[in-house]
Design brief:
With 92 residues, the protein is an alpha+beta fold. The chain is 23% helix and 9% strand. It is built from 4 helices and 2 strands, in the order H-H-H-H-E-E. A two-stranded antiparallel sheet has the order 1-2. It is flat, with a radius of gyration of 18 Å. This is Acetyl-coenzyme A synthetase.
């Protein structure tokens, strides 16, 4: 097996994905949906999988950054993904 620049085994996302458990989608009961806080279908659509990972930019822009980030997601070293690369928050 080949190693990455840090000496770890180099593994592709496809090799990792074969271990992911496929799960079906279960629609919640109508009573639960009725009490949910999110009712705007446009907001739900904004975070559809086809907009991943850029859709998370919206969440990041709700925060006050000490140092603003340059990249939403760096997925070059799976499974060690880095979110909001270069950004710094004053958060615990």
């Amino acid at each position: 097996m080949t190693k990455d620049h840090k000496g770890r085994p180099k593994v592709s996302e496809a090799q990792i994905a074969v271990h992911w458990k496929e799960e079906g989608y279960y629609r919640p009961p109508a009573r639960f949906i009725g009490q949910a806080n999110l009712h705007d279908p446009d907001f739900v659509a904004k975070f559809d999988e086809k907009y991943f990972p850029e859709c998370f930019r919206h969440y990041a822009e709700l925060l006050d950054w000490d140092q603003y980030w340059q990249t939403v997601l760096d997925a070059d070293d799976p499974p060690f993904w880095k979110w909001f690369v270069g950004g710094k928050l004053n958060a615990c």
